[in-house]
């Protein structure tokens, strides 16, 4: 079964933050957004597409017992903990953070003159009390062109490891090209068209900024009608 979520169906938020503003597209219940039908998807708890104005900062805040994956979709993302340590991501790069037993951190637009867009995903951890850690991966467009590239995974050796039964893949799929993806038992897929498109997903049309929630399917066939940037999240259904 495939459920297509059109852009207008995804909750949008905006507000003031330190040094600027944010605009968010929040796919699952988060902060003031509460939707009983979209509380989580398997091990995926949060999927936020946020844009920060030039120089804006999401100030230091505390989390515990989550696995965080951050994908930079435009501009430059900078992560910092309470000691100012972190890393910078450029478009297509990815970061994984084990929050574990607790961490203060902030998300920062590293550029003073351009907006910054990032996709942040939270996953339920497979164990509690882990030591906090941060790792990141540099990815160029050629590496993900016309293929699904594992970015973060509990299975793929070349991906950033994660303490959750989950995987995140990216792709730049050129117009007219196709991808096939096998889905194992007890797993689901969340596919997001974060730029370009539309794409056909098993003959369902998914527009730019739209998503497909996939359960009880064994195979995905994805075709790009125009160039498209995609994120595919594969999770255990709990």
UniProtKB/TrEMBL annotation:
The lineage of its organism: Bacteria, Pseudomonadati, Planctomycetota, Candidatus Brocadiia, Candidatus Brocadiales. PANTHER family: QUERCETIN 2,3-DIOXYGENASE (PTHR43212). Residues 154-235 form the Quercetin 2,3-dioxygenase C-terminal cupin domain. Belongs to the pirin family. This is Pirin family protein. Residues 22-122 form the Pirin N-terminal domain.
């Amino acid at each position: 079964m495939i459920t297509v979520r059109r852009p207008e169906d995804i909750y949008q938020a905006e507000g003031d933050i330190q040094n600027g503003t944010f605009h968010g597209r929040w796919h699952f219940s988060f902060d003031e957004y509460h939707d009983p039908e979209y509380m989580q998807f398997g091990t995926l708890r949060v999927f936020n597409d946020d844009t920060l104005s030039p120089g804006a900062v999401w100030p230091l805040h505390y989390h515990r017992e989550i696995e965080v994956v951050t994908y930079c979709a435009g501009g430059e993302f900078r992560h910092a903990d309470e000691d100012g340590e972190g890393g910078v991501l450029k478009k297509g790069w990815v970061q994984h953070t084990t929050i574990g037993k607790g961490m203060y951190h902030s998300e920062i637009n590293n550029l003073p003159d351009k907006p910054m867009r990032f996709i942040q995903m939270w996953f339920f951890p497979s164990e509690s009390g882990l030591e906090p850690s941060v790792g990141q991966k540099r990815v160029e467009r050629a590496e993900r062109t016309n293929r699904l590239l594992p970015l973060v995974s509990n299975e793929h050796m070349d991906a950033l490891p994660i303490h959750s039964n989950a995987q995140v893949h990216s792709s730049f799929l050129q117009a007219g090209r196709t991808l096939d993806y096998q889905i194992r038992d007890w797993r689901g897929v969340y596919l997001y068209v974060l730029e370009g498109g539309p794409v056909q997903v098993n003959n369902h049309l998914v527009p730019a900024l739209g998503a497909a929630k996939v359960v009880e399917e064994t195979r995905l066939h994805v075709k790009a009608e125009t160039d498209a940037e995609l994120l595919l999240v594969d999770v255990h259904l709990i």
